[in-house]
Amino acid sequence: MALPKLNDYPQYTMIQPSTGKEIKFRPFLVKEEKVMLLASESQNMQDVLRAVVNTITACCEDLDGDKLTSFDIEYMFVKLRAKSVGETSEVVIKCEGCDHGNPYKIDLGALEMTVPEIEKRVELSKDISVELQWPNFEILQKVVGVDAGTSQSEYIFALIRGAISAVLTEEERIDLKDVSVKEIDEFIESMNTEQFSKIRDVIESIPSLRHDVEFNCEVCGHKNDLVVQGMENFFS
């Protein structure tokens, strides 16, 4: 005799930030929560990121996980968790005055994200331009896989490498999927400061979940007016 089905899963909708497309989803189940827990215990950021993306794609309809941007992953996972575990998350935020950790409840359901228009084509010289894309999960997997000692500049460089989808000359369009990492690095390193800054500005405009926080410290009474940013800061 087959075991009974425990639940009929409710359906919700949310908007995928990078595309504006409406996505249908269900809450995640114990099997998905177990995978995320095991990944978290491994303390391997690649494993954690993969577990989060696998959970998103398992719970959402018609979604290609490899095409999700970093801000898609942040936003969609928080919305998914809100419907799966609870609409609020209690976090601990340090006081700017005395460094004491204050408990603070964040309404996950109210978090929204504004996505700027990406400059898809950037001219580097009179006859050379580059096409840009928001770094997606395929790229992020490579970036988070670098050593923990990687500097901020090396991290930015890795994102820039992944964000350039093609190089355009007067004669041809060169898709960087067909070019080695060594050649891409040599191309980037040949840029002058102004050219590099044009691309770096796009990378640094990648959106992230943000929430304005105001509270008076329970110990010293200092009034704090802070911004909580990044998915990892919205959960205890």
How would you describe what is shown here?
The model has no long low-confidence stretch (mean pLDDT 85). This protein is an alpha+beta fold and 236 residues long. It has helices at 30-42, 45-59, 70-84, 137-144, 152-163, 181-189, 193-203; strands spanning 12-15, 22-25, 88-94, 101-107, 121-123, 129-132, 164-168, 173-175, 210-216, 223-229. The two termini are 41 Å apart. It has 2 domains: 12-113 and 208-234, no CATH class; 121-203, no CATH class. The strands form 4 sheets. Strands 5-6-7-8 form a 4-stranded antiparallel β-sheet. It is built from 7 helices and 10 strands.
Write down the overall geometry.
globular
Task: Give the averaged pLDDT, no decimals.
Answer: 85
**Strand tally, please?**
10
Q: Report how far apart the termini are.
A: 41 Å
Strand content: 15-25%
Largest sheet: 4 strands, antiparallel
Query: Radius of gyration from the CA trace?
Result: 21 Å
Helix content range: 25-40%
Q: Identify the strand order in the major beta sheet.
A: 5-6-7-8
- How many domains? The number is 2
Q: Count the helices. How many?
A: 7
Order of helices and strands: EEHHHEEEEHHEEHHEE
User: Which oligomeric form is depicted?
Assistant: single chain
Which regions have little confidence, pLDDT < 50, spanning 5+ residues?
none
Query: Given the helix and strand composition, which structural class is it?
Result: alpha+beta
